[in-house]
Structures are given as structure tokens and as C-alpha cells.
């Protein structure tokens, strides 16, 4: 099947699942069809689907991701102050790495808003619909929403990353407290520990809690770099940590804090 044929097949199969979709007209343009397919994936409940659907979906997503350009984390330039650290502005769903971190919500089933541009939506979209089902089964077994500051691991499914680490950061709707900072630090620590348990050599962090959760970006970057540095000095399993940023402003903030890492280590050794 061609990509066009796969896309139409997936749209038609998802529309068959719900009678409310029977009058939706499939647009003729590829980009509009992709937005429709993504929307249907984003709102699909976590339930099983046929092996044929998954086979075609997986082929479609893998070719789509490859066409967008897969980035090898091992080839990214490290910061001058520490060869273990990378600051990279790009799309985390295209990153070939052992593990990427998803800023999840307490439900842990992805973003349900069609075509939303949050990282949770993007990761679930390009992983495929099996990720939501996998997360749902984990949460049913757990029996309660995911608390902030912990981490869970799932396969990457169709992503170039082998694993996805899902963590819930603190929501800031009040003046920032030390408890908020401790919870965010715990997100990084939990992800690093879990990645090491699964023998990951490399991990990419998004800017946890700094989007719709409204954690101040400068403080978040300071906490992120400090926690990563602390872990790497205690555990040698992880060899490379990528700080994945979305904007040039975030990139500048991380470069400031990452540039302090070697100075702090040297000072501590005196």
C-alpha cells in the first residue's frame, strides 16, 4: 500500500468504530486527511484493535516519521562544559535515543484534544494508538491517578526512541513553593533512575511542567540541570542526557545553566 492508501484505510476504519462519524466527509488534500486521522486517533478510547489495523498504522507512522527526518542523539553536539549533556531544539518524536520523557497528566493516557500541539499529544500520535491502550492498562492495574514526581516506562512503539518515560510534573496555579520545586526535581530523579534500571545509555528530557502547567522556565531549567548533574555523578549507566527545548528562549536558558555544570563540579572538588 502507498502512504495515501494507508491513510485512507486508517481514517475509514476509525470512522467505522463510531456511528457519530458516519457523516464526516474525508477531505481530498493530504494534509487535511492527516489532521483528520490524527484527530480520530487523539479521541479514540483505549480499546483493542485488529492486527491488520496496527500493521498498516505502524507502516504509515514509521514512514511518516522517517520522512520528517530521524535525528541520532549520539551525533548531537554536546555543551562545551560537559560532554554528557546536549541542548537540542527540535522535535522529540524524531529522536533516535534509548528513552524520551513525556510530560504527562495524571490520567496518563495522552492528550484527548484533537491535534493539540502539546508534547503529550505529539508523542501519543506518533507512537500509535497502542500507547494509549498500554497506558490505560497500567493505570487500571494501579487503581488511582498518577501522582506528581514519579515515572512510568512504556515501549516507544513507532517512535525512533526505544522507551518513553511518562512523568507528571507539578501544576502551578499559585506562587511557587519549595514543594513545587521538590516535586519537579523528583520527576527528573525518577526518570533517570527508571532509565538506568532499564539499562538506557541515553535519555532526552522535555521541559517538564513549563507549558500548560506553568512552572517558571528559568527555575525549571535550573532544577533540571542540577538533578541531572547530581545523578550522573552518582550513577554511570547513562552516558548522554539531551535537554530538548521547543523555543530559542528555552535554549538560551538551558545554555546558561548547563554552562555552570563544570564550574560547580570543580568548585565542589576544592
Task: Please give a structural write-up.
Strand 2 (78-79) and strand 3 (82-89) form a beta hairpin. The protein has two domains: 3-67, no CATH class; 70-269, Leucine Aminopeptidase, subunit E, domain 1. Helix 1 (3-16) crosses helix 3 (51-68). It is built from nine helices and nine strands. The strands form two sheets. It has a seven-stranded mixed sheet with strand order 2-3-9-8-5-7-6, sandwiched between helices. Strands 1-4 form a two-stranded parallel sheet. The chain starts with a helix and ends with a helix. Residues 261-270 have low confidence and may be disordered. It is 47% helix and 14% strand. The chain has helices at 3-16, 30-43, 51-68, 119-127, 130-142, 178-197, 217-234, 248-258, 261-269, and strands spanning 71-72, 78-79, 82-89, 95-96, 99-103, 152-155, 163-167, 202-205, 240-245. The chain is globular and about 55 Å long. The chain is of the alpha/beta class and 270 residues long.
Average pLDDT rating: 93
Biggest β-sheet: strands ordered side by side in the sheet? 2-3-9-8-5-7-6
**SSE run:** HHHEEEEEHHEEHEHEHH
Label the CATH architecture of the largest domain.
3-Layer(aba) Sandwich
State the major sheet: 7 strands, mixed
Approximate shape: globular
Quickly count the domains: 2
The N- and C-terminal alpha carbons lie at a distance of: 64 Å
Any idea what the CATH superfamily of the largest domain is called?
Leucine Aminopeptidase, subunit E, domain 1
- The unreliable regions are 261-270
User: And the CATH topology of the largest domain?
Assistant: Leucine Aminopeptidase, subunit E, domain 1
Class inferred from helices and paired strands: alpha/beta
Number of helices in the DSSP assignment: 9
Strand content: 5-15%
Strand tally is: 9
What percent of residues adopt helix (DSSP H or I)? 40-55%
CATH C-level name of the largest domain: Alpha Beta
Radius of gyration: 19 Å
Amino acid at each position: 500500500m502507498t502512504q495515501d492508501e494507508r491513510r485512507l484505510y486508517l481514517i475509514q476504519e476509525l470512522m467505522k468504530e463510531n456511528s457519530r462519524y458516519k457523516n464526516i466527509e474525508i477531505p481530498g488534500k493530504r494534509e487535511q486527511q492527516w489532521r483528520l486521522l490524527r484527530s480520530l486517533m487523539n479521541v479514540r478510547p483505549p480499546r483493542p484493535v485488529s492486527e491488520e489495523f496496527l500493521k498498516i498504522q505502524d507502516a504509515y507512522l514509521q514512514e511518516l516519521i522517517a520522512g520528517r527526518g530521524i535525528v541520532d542523539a549520539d551525533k548531537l553536539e554536546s555543551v562545551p562544559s560537559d560532554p554528557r549533556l546536549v541542548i537540542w531544539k527540535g522535535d522529540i518524536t524524531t529522536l533516535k535515543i534509548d528513552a524520551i520523557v513525556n510530560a504527562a497528566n495524571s490520567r496518563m493516557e495522552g492528550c484527548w484534544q484533537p491535534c493539540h500541539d502539546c508534547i503529550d499529544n505529539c508523542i501519543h500520535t506518533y507512537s500509535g494508538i497502542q500507547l494509549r491502550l498500554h497506558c490505560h492498562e497500567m493505570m487500571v492495574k494501579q487503581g488511582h491517578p498518577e501522582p506528581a514526581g514519579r515515572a512510568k516506562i512504556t515501549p516507544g512503539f513507532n517512535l525512533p526512541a526505544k522507551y518513553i518515560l511518562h512523568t507528571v510534573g507539578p501544576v502551578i496555579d499559585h506562587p511557587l513553593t519549595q514543594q513545587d520545586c521538590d516535586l519537579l526535581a523528583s520527576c527528573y530523579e525518577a526518570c533517570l533512575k527508571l532509565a538506568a534500571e532499564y539499562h538506557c545509555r541515553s535519555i532526552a528530557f522535555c521541559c517538564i511542567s513549563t507549558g500548560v502547567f506553568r512552572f517558571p522556565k528559568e527555575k525549571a531549567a535550573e532544577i533540571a540541570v542540577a538533578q541531572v548533574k547530581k545523578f550522573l555523578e552518582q550513577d554511570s549507566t547513562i552516558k548522554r542526557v539531551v535537554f530538548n527545548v521547543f523555543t530559542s528562549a528555552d535554549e538560551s536558558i538551558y545554555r546558561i545553566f548547563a554552562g555552570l555544570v563544570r564550574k560547580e563540579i570543580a568548585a565542589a572538588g576544592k
